[in-house]
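Example 9 (inverse folding). The structure is encoded as follows.
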């Protein structure tokens, strides 16, 4: 498990690593994914470090709601809302989580299929 000082998202939020930020407020930030899987691929991350959904508690409900609200706002801004987009949370290794900091993937700009993987 990563420590806060090892976490790439914590380093980005602290200004120690570069990123293409597209949104910031006091609770969350959003950035462009460095390995996009769609024409639009953004990551929406809470400023408070949570490794994954396993660590979420009732006190995090407002943050989780805000993550989704920001994802929706960014989809409108990126003009992917009308045709559809996907919001994904990978939780754990088997699900494809590669950074131990809770984050939403907002993907759009192409057709997606089901099942995803």
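The amino acid assigned to each position is listed next.
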């Amino acid at each position: 498990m990563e420590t806060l000082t090892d976490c790439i998202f914590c380093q980005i939020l602290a200004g120690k690593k570069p990123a293409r930020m597209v949104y910031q407020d006091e609770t969350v930030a959003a950035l462009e994914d460095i390995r996009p899987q769609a024409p639009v691929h953004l990551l929406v991350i809470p400023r408070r470090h949570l490794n994954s959904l396993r660590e979420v508690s009732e006190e995090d409900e407002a943050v989780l709601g805000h993550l989704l609200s920001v994802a929706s706002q960014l989809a409108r801004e990126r003009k992917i809302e009308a045709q559809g987009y996907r919001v994904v949370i990978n939780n754990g290794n088997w699900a494809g989580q590669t950074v131990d900091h809770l984050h939403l993937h907002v993907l759009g700009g192409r057709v997606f299929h089901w099942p995803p993987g």
